[in-house]
Amino acid sequence: MSILDLYSSAFLERNRDHFAAIVRVALSDGGINEEERAFLDRLAVNLNISEEDYAAILVDPAKYPINPPFFYDSRLERLYDLVRMVYADHIADEEETAMLHKLGVGLGFTPGNVKYIIAKAYDLVSHGVDLDTFKEEMKHMNR
């Protein structure tokens, strides 16, 4: 097996695990609505999730670990995806917010700051910012 094969395998595994975390958030309010399904479908394509993995993740997303990215920018990108999923139905209920806090800690944000980070992320996504603006604004928060 070549280094490229190992890298590709690890990359696909991280994408699968990230996708599973987003599915957990989508399911935390009891089901997946049409807007959430459309978001998941687009994200699955972008993350290179196979149809088989997609189906397996929908059955049991909790069996996939949360693998926090090493780089802060990557953490912010994953947080952006997660918050967009919660915001897909424009209703962030208590279960979704609690799940998002857990996933935020799992992504490597500190438990003491995760509530503030999630609130800021919700605010930015609700205003329709793009990923680059989201990352810049979240970085300014820590200065």
**How many individual helices?**
7
Portion of residues in beta strands equals under 5%
Question: Which structural class do you get from the secondary structure elements?
Answer: mainly alpha
Report the mean per-residue pLDDT as an integer. 82
Note the gap between the termini.
44 Å
The gross shape turns out to be globular
- H and E string: HHHHHHH
Q: Please state the CA-atom Rg, rounded to the nearest Å.
A: 15 Å
Count of strand segments: 0
- Helix fraction, binned, reads 55-70%
List the domain count as a whole number.
1
Taking pLDDT < 50 over at least 5 consecutive residues as the criterion, the unreliable ranges are 1-7
Please describe the biggest sheet, giving its number of strands, its sense, and whether it closes into a barrel. none
Task: Explain what you see.
- The protein is an all-alpha fold and 143 residues long.
- The protein has one domain (3-141).
- It has helices at residues 3-27, 34-46, 51-59, 72-87, 94-106, 114-126, 131-141.
- Helix 1 (3-27) packs across helix 3, helix 1 runs antiparallel to helix 5 and helix 4 (72-87) packs antiparallel against helix 5.
- It is globular, with a radius of gyration of 15 Å.
- The termini are far apart.
- Residues 1-7 have low confidence and may be disordered.
